[in-house]
Design a protein that fits this description.
The protein is 68% helix and 6% strand. By secondary structure, the protein is mainly alpha-helical. The protein has a two-stranded antiparallel sheet. Strand 1 and strand 2 form a beta hairpin. The radius of gyration is 16 Å and the shape is globular. The protein starts with 11 loop residues before the first helix and ends with a helix.
Protein backbone atom coordinates (compact mmCIF):
# COMPACT_ATOMS: atom_id res chain seq x y z
CA UNK A 1 0.00 0.00 0.00
CA UNK A 2 1.40 3.39 -0.92
CA UNK A 3 1.51 6.15 1.67
CA UNK A 4 -1.17 8.08 -0.22
CA UNK A 5 -3.59 5.13 -0.10
CA UNK A 6 -3.53 5.28 3.69
CA UNK A 7 -5.42 8.59 3.45
CA UNK A 8 -8.49 6.85 2.04
CA UNK A 9 -10.20 6.18 5.38
CA UNK A 10 -9.54 9.62 6.84
CA UNK A 11 -12.04 12.42 6.50
CA UNK A 12 -11.45 16.13 6.24
CA UNK A 13 -12.85 16.57 9.77
CA UNK A 14 -10.15 14.35 11.25
CA UNK A 15 -7.42 16.24 9.44
CA UNK A 16 -8.87 19.63 10.42
CA UNK A 17 -9.13 18.54 14.03
CA UNK A 18 -5.58 17.15 14.09
CA UNK A 19 -4.24 20.30 12.41
CA UNK A 20 -5.98 22.62 14.88
CA UNK A 21 -4.68 20.67 17.89
CA UNK A 22 -1.14 20.48 16.49
CA UNK A 23 -0.90 24.19 15.64
CA UNK A 24 -2.30 25.18 19.07
CA UNK A 25 0.19 22.85 20.78
CA UNK A 26 3.10 24.23 18.79
CA UNK A 27 2.14 27.86 19.40
CA UNK A 28 1.72 27.18 23.13
CA UNK A 29 5.14 25.50 23.28
CA UNK A 30 6.65 28.46 21.42
CA UNK A 31 4.85 30.92 23.71
CA UNK A 32 3.51 32.74 20.65
CA UNK A 33 6.97 33.24 19.08
CA UNK A 34 6.47 32.44 15.39
CA UNK A 35 10.16 31.84 14.60
CA UNK A 36 10.43 29.48 17.55
CA UNK A 37 7.27 27.70 16.35
CA UNK A 38 8.80 27.22 12.91
CA UNK A 39 11.94 25.74 14.45
CA UNK A 40 9.87 23.42 16.69
CA UNK A 41 8.05 22.11 13.63
CA UNK A 42 11.28 21.61 11.70
CA UNK A 43 12.78 19.72 14.64
CA UNK A 44 9.70 17.49 14.71
CA UNK A 45 10.01 16.83 10.97
CA UNK A 46 13.64 15.83 11.59
CA UNK A 47 12.70 13.67 14.57
CA UNK A 48 10.17 11.85 12.36
CA UNK A 49 12.88 11.38 9.67
CA UNK A 50 11.00 13.45 7.09
CA UNK A 51 13.97 15.83 6.74
CA UNK A 52 17.64 14.98 7.19
CA UNK A 53 20.23 16.24 9.63
CA UNK A 54 21.91 18.15 6.79
CA UNK A 55 18.63 19.80 5.70
CA UNK A 56 17.65 21.02 9.18
CA UNK A 57 20.13 23.95 9.40
CA UNK A 58 19.33 25.00 5.81
CA UNK A 59 15.59 25.11 6.57
CA UNK A 60 16.18 26.86 9.90
CA UNK A 61 18.23 29.49 8.05
CA UNK A 62 15.44 29.95 5.51
CA UNK A 63 13.05 30.59 8.43
CA UNK A 64 15.37 33.08 10.10
CA UNK A 65 15.87 35.05 6.89
CA UNK A 66 12.13 35.15 6.27
CA UNK A 67 11.33 36.38 9.77
CA UNK A 68 13.99 39.09 9.50
CA UNK A 69 12.58 40.22 6.14
CA UNK A 70 9.05 40.33 7.53
CA UNK A 71 10.26 42.33 10.53
CA UNK A 72 12.06 44.85 8.32
CA UNK A 73 15.50 43.73 9.57
CA UNK A 74 16.56 42.28 6.22
CA UNK A 75 15.94 43.62 2.73
CA UNK A 76 13.17 41.55 1.11
CA UNK A 77 14.91 41.35 -2.28
CA UNK A 78 18.16 40.12 -0.75
CA UNK A 79 16.24 37.70 1.48
CA UNK A 80 14.34 36.34 -1.53
CA UNK A 81 17.55 35.64 -3.44
CA UNK A 82 19.17 34.06 -0.37
CA UNK A 83 16.18 31.77 0.21
CA UNK A 84 15.91 30.93 -3.51
CA UNK A 85 19.61 30.03 -3.60
CA UNK A 86 19.20 27.73 -0.57
CA UNK A 87 16.24 26.03 -2.25
CA UNK A 88 18.13 25.61 -5.52
CA UNK A 89 21.11 24.12 -3.68
CA UNK A 90 18.81 21.57 -2.04
CA UNK A 91 17.45 20.64 -5.48
CA UNK A 92 20.88 20.42 -7.11
CA UNK A 93 22.18 17.95 -4.54
CA UNK A 94 19.76 15.43 -5.98
CA UNK A 95 19.06 13.68 -2.70
CA UNK A 96 16.93 16.20 -0.82
CA UNK A 97 13.84 14.89 0.91
CA UNK A 98 10.49 15.72 -0.66
CA UNK A 99 9.46 17.48 2.56
CA UNK A 100 12.54 19.73 2.57
CA UNK A 101 11.91 20.62 -1.07
CA UNK A 102 8.22 21.37 -0.45
CA UNK A 103 9.07 23.51 2.59
CA UNK A 104 11.86 25.44 0.85
CA UNK A 105 9.83 25.92 -2.33
CA UNK A 106 6.97 27.35 -0.29
CA UNK A 107 9.39 29.70 1.43
CA UNK A 108 10.55 31.04 -1.93
CA UNK A 109 6.92 31.50 -2.92
CA UNK A 110 6.20 33.47 0.23
CA UNK A 111 7.90 36.50 -1.30
CA UNK A 112 5.70 38.71 -3.47
CA UNK A 113 7.71 39.04 -6.66
CA UNK A 114 7.44 39.50 -10.38
CA UNK A 115 9.69 37.76 -12.88
CA UNK A 116 10.56 40.17 -15.66
CA UNK A 117 10.66 37.28 -18.15
CA UNK A 118 13.18 36.75 -20.91
CA UNK A 119 16.08 36.60 -18.47
CA UNK A 120 15.40 39.98 -16.91
CA UNK A 121 15.70 40.64 -13.19
CA UNK A 122 13.11 39.47 -10.70
CA UNK A 123 11.58 42.34 -8.74
CA UNK A 124 10.75 41.55 -5.12
CA UNK A 125 8.10 43.74 -3.58
CA UNK A 126 7.89 42.30 -0.05
CA UNK A 127 7.91 39.23 2.13
CA UNK A 128 4.43 37.96 3.00
CA UNK A 129 3.52 39.63 6.24
CA UNK A 130 2.23 37.01 8.63
CA UNK A 131 4.80 34.23 8.31
CA UNK A 132 2.02 31.65 8.56
CA UNK A 133 3.40 30.05 5.40
CA UNK A 134 6.36 28.52 7.23
CA UNK A 135 4.48 27.47 10.33
CA UNK A 136 1.66 25.83 8.39
CA UNK A 137 4.04 24.19 5.91
CA UNK A 138 5.86 22.53 8.79
CA UNK A 139 2.71 21.62 10.70
CA UNK A 140 1.17 20.27 7.48
CA UNK A 141 4.27 18.13 7.00
CA UNK A 142 4.03 16.71 10.50
CA UNK A 143 0.31 16.02 10.28
CA UNK A 144 0.52 14.63 6.75
CA UNK A 145 3.34 12.38 7.91
CA UNK A 146 1.24 10.97 10.73
CA UNK A 147 -1.47 10.02 8.24
CA UNK A 148 0.58 9.06 5.21
CA UNK A 149 4.28 8.59 5.93
CA UNK A 150 6.86 10.50 3.93
CA UNK A 151 4.54 10.99 0.93
CA UNK A 152 1.85 12.39 3.21
CA UNK A 153 4.43 14.64 4.87
CA UNK A 154 5.51 16.12 1.54
CA UNK A 155 1.92 16.64 0.47
CA UNK A 156 1.03 18.14 3.87
CA UNK A 157 3.97 20.54 3.70
CA UNK A 158 2.94 21.67 0.23
CA UNK A 159 -0.72 22.16 1.19
CA UNK A 160 0.21 23.89 4.46
CA UNK A 161 2.50 26.22 2.56
CA UNK A 162 -0.25 27.17 0.12
CA UNK A 163 -2.77 27.75 2.91
CA UNK A 164 -0.22 29.79 4.87
CA UNK A 165 0.52 31.96 1.84
CA UNK A 166 -3.19 32.63 1.40
CA UNK A 167 -3.53 33.60 5.05
CA UNK A 168 -0.47 35.84 4.84
CA UNK A 169 -1.85 37.66 1.82
CA UNK A 170 -5.42 38.17 3.10
Amino acid sequence: MSSIESFSGIGVYEMQSAAAREVKRIMAEAKGDRLKADKIVLSKLHELNFITEAELPVLNHICEVGHKATGGKHDAAKAYHEVKKAYEELMMKGNASPVALAYASGAVGSYVSEDGGGGSTTVVYKKSGGNWQGTLAGAGGVIGGYFGGSGGAALGAAVGSVVGKIIDEC
